[in-house]
Structure formats: structure tokens, C-alpha cells
Amino acid sequence: MKRRVVITGMGVVTPLSCQVEDLWERLCRGESGIHLIQGFDTSIFRVKFGGEIRNWNPTGYIDAKEAKRIDRFAQYAVVAATDAVRQSGLDFSREDPYRCAAIIGSGVGGLGEIEMQHRRLLEKGPERVSAFTIPKMMLNAASGCVSIQFGIKGPSYGVVTACASASSAVVEAAKEIQFGEVDVVITGGTEAAVTPLGIAGFTAMSALSERNEAPEKASRPFDRDRDGFVLSEGAGIVILEDLEHAKRRGATILGELLGYGASSDAGHITQPDENGTGAARAMADALRNAKLNPEDIGYINAHGTSTPLGDRAETVAIKNVFGDYAKRVSVSSTKSQLGHLLGASGGVELIISLLAVKKGVIPPTINYETPDPECDLDYTPNVPRERRMKAAMSNSFGFGGHNVALIVADYQG
What we know:
Distance between the termini: 17 Å
Oligomer: single chain
Low-confidence stretches: none
């Protein structure tokens, strides 16, 4: 029999807030974390804004000397993980380190370090490239740094499925617990891709909104006038535990991961299946895995990136899975306020989904002004709405055709 998986801690780093409860309150007030980029000169860029973490300072979480040796994406993971561990009440000195794991997703890893060291190579020669280049840029650096931070000696690794990376990491973490390999996993995702190359690369794909005159209104999922996503950064980390382990140590159980589903489109490398077939399969498998009916889901935190193709395909997928109930389930995309955190988005959105269940409130999709006839569900436009619910679903879809759906609920004993 599979072991039950519960959530005992949560931590976030986002452009809107780096505290879970404050983030929730700001989301419900309809605030935006999107602004003009200050970290580098954008004068020659077509896109000049994003969900940038401003005034970042990990002091109090990471030793100053150590912080210089790890890229920002790994720093975000350590900070969010530390907050999650504090909330969980875990004392890893009392745990069997081989029964604990760190499984953390990222889409692009240490992109900023790659850019910096490449400039050094070209301008100053190979002897001036930093000895920390490789350990700072590698995608598994986040899980490695978190495992070092807490003395975790069980399976620790990185997961890469582009924008579904955090959700894929949660799936792998849940399996480790369900099948008895470990008792505790620090999991989720992290990203720090608001860099010159990150902005330029996504702009070249025509993937980003170019509303430079009103950055806070640029991300408008499901709105008829959406023109692309907003690149953002941060981390979302949760502590997953075996239920019995959490009960034995007297933990406060925040919620339960009831189910998950994953699939691949096996189509275009960046464009979603226009019929949402793979996304629908992931959602349907999550419902089966959780042993729930569509009507048991009160809220879907949509992937909803604000791209013309993606939002339409997700709408079709929801209709295919939820049938007549699709028009009655509450849907929203908090990317309207946070932007798209790429490989970190699923971790942050899983936390938001659990808070929605616990608080009985659906966070809004802001900037929803003009309905799109092809996107005709209840997207909770512009203001939050109260709704009691049994469970919520969080969707994450990534370049490469990766689809993941997670289902969470309040813990019922």
C-alpha cells in the first residue's frame, strides 16, 4: 500500500513577496510583481520588463562567502527551503540523513553565471574564467546546495522539464515517499533567468509580451488581447513527508498531496498540442491517481502563461477532462501577477493552490479585460472569490511537450 504524502512546510521567493502569507495577501489584493528591469541595461532590448527579484540579499540564510560561490537560482532554492524547513519544525540532526532527500527542478539553471563567465572568456582569456563556473551553472546545484545546507544524504537530484520542472520534481519526490525509499523530501523548483540572454532568447522566439509601456498589465492570461508571457524568477519549495512520520514527530500538517499525472505531447518542441491532448491526459491521470471525480476539484491553478496558443489549448484540455462541470470549476492564472517563473512556477503555484483550499478563496486572474470566445471558462477575473472546496489542481506545461498536473487538499486525518 502506498504511503500518504503530506505537506508540512512551504517557502517562496517571488517578485511580489518572499513570504508565503504576504504573497497570498498581495495576490488576493490583485497586486502585480512585474516591473521594468533594473538589473541590467535594457536600452537595446525589445522587452524591458519582467518579474525581477530586486534588492536580493540572502544574508541570514547563506554565509556571505558561500553566497559568492553559488548562482542566484541556487540561492533562491536555499532561502525558500530554509523557510519551508523552519515552518515544518524539522530538525535534521534528529533524522536519519539517508531517509531524507532533496529533489528540486529548474529549467535553465545558472544562466547568469554562464553569461558572466563567457564574457570573461572573450574579454580576458581562459585563465580568468572562475573555478566556480561549472558548480554554479549546473542544474543540480540547487538540490546539491540544499542537501549540503541540511545534511541530507538520501537521493538528491535535479529535475528538468522546462516550465514543468518544479511539478515534475514534486512527482518524483512523492514517489520516493510513497514507495518507502525516504520519509522527508525538500522539493519544488527554482529559477533565475531574468538575464540579458534569457530576455533576448525568449524575445527572439516571439514568446514574450512587449507591453513596455505598462509592465504590470502585460501578463493577461486568457484575455483576448494577450501577446505573450512575462519572464520572471524565484523559487517555490515544499516539505513533503510520509504521513506517519509527520504524525510521530508531532508536525503541523498543512495539506496532503492526493495525486499527480504526467504526460508528453510528442509534438512540437515549443508549441503545445492545439487540442490539449497531452495536458488533458495529465489532468485525467491526476484525478485517477487521487481517486477523485472532476466535481471534487473546486479550483484549477492554470498554467495560463498569457500566450495565444497555450491558453487556448489549456482551455480545450480542461473542457475535455471536466466535461459539463468545466464551466463551473473555478480557474485562475496567478502568472497574471507573478509572471512566468519557468522551472520554479509549479512550486509556487502548488503552494498557492493549497492556500486556496485552506482559506476557501480563489485568487484572481488580473488584467482580464476582454473575453476571448475561444477561452470561455470561469477565470475568476480581477477579484478573488470565496469558494469552499475539497481539492485543487495545479497545472504545469513545459517546452518539449511536458505536462504535469498535481492535486492537493487540506489534511483531513
